[in-house]
Every structure is written in structure tokens, then in C-alpha cells.
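User: Please fill in residues for this 168-position structure.
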């Protein structure tokens, strides 16, 4: 997203946008903040009152559904924010919700941090590959792979409960 593209979209001059925005960086930051907020709201609604595999699946599905419904905003949520902005953003809620979800698995540190990173990496990797058409070259349904992935993550997390297994 650029200021020029935004101006064209709303049929205004770029200069008039500068009364609302300082730069294209500010525009990208605002879109990222909006996307993080929307995604946090969806995930929060999806996981409310759930635990364990049920919460993991609801979290993952909300994440995937958002990425599919709003691919541009999903991509924008990956925009690197400065530390102060990030600390005040809904990104903090994402981390808190992920850690809350993981409480059912009774993970010690640093296993919990490893799990937060693993879930983010797996979910992002899957939805990014799916969006790029990476799963369209096989007769195996992507939904079946998604469910298999969530079940496998649940199995792995349960196996690590109470700090089981190596942490490095």
C-alpha cells in the first residue's frame, strides 16, 4: 500500500492525504495495527471458553479464516513495528492468548516460548503456502492437512506437558 495507491482509490490528490498521514510508513503502521486488532478480536471470540485441542483448533481456524478472508490485511499484520508501537498494539494480546491457550498443556519455560513460536510459524507457514497455491498440486485436500496439522500439534504439546522432553 502506498499513498499514491490510496489517493487513486479515493480519487484524491496525494498531497491531501498528508493532512491525515505523515508518510507511507505511518499508513502501513496504521493498517498493521488495524489488522492485528481485527485478528486478535476474531481469535479471542473463537477461543473463549475453550481449552486444549478444542481451543487450539479454534485459534488456528480463526487465524486461517482471517488470512483467507483478508489476505492484504493479513500480510499487513506482518509489518515490522517499532518497539513502542508494538508494545501498545494488539500483538501483545496475540501473545497473551497464545500463552493462555498453552496453559492447558502445562509447559514450563522455555518450552512455552518455543511453543508460542512454533504455533506462529506453523500457522503462518501453512496459510502462506495455501494462499500461494502451494497445496493445489495434489489430490489431498488442504482442509485434511490442516486438521492433521492441528491434531499433530496437540499431540506434540501434550507429550511436552510438564516440561517433558528436551528444551534446547
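Assistant: Residues filled in for all 168 positions:
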Amino acid at each position: 500500500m502506498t499513498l499514491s495507491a490510496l489517493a487513486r482509490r479515493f480519487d484524491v490528490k496525494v498531497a491531501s492525504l498528508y493532512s491525515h498521514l505523515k508518510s507511507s510508513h505511518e499508513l502501513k503502521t496504521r493498517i498493521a495495527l488495524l489488522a492485528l486488532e481485527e485478528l486478535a478480536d476474531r481469535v479471542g471470540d473463537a477461543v473463549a471458553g475453550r481449552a486444549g485441542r478444542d481451543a487450539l483448533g479454534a485459534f488456528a481456524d480463526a487465524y486461517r479464516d482471517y488470512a483467507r478472508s483478508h489476505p492484504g490485511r493479513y500480510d499487513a499484520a506482518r509489518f515490522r513495528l517499532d518497539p513502542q508501537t508494538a508494545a501498545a498494539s494488539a500483538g501483545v494480546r496475540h501473545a497473551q492468548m497464545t500463552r493462555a491457550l498453552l496453559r492447558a498443556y502445562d509447559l514450563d519455560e522455555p518450552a512455552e516460548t518455543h511453543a508460542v513460536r512454533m504455533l506462529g510459524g506453523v500457522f503462518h507457514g501453512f496459510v502462506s503456502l495455501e494462499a500461494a497455491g502451494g497445496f493445489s498440486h495434489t489430490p489431498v485436500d488442504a482442509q485434511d492437512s490442516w486438521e492433521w496439522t492441528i491434531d499433530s500439534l496437540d499431540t506434540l504439546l501434550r507429550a511436552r506437558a510438564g516440561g517433558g522432553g528436551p528444551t534446547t
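For context: The domain at 33-163 is CATH 1.10.357.10 (Tetracycline Repressor; domain 2).
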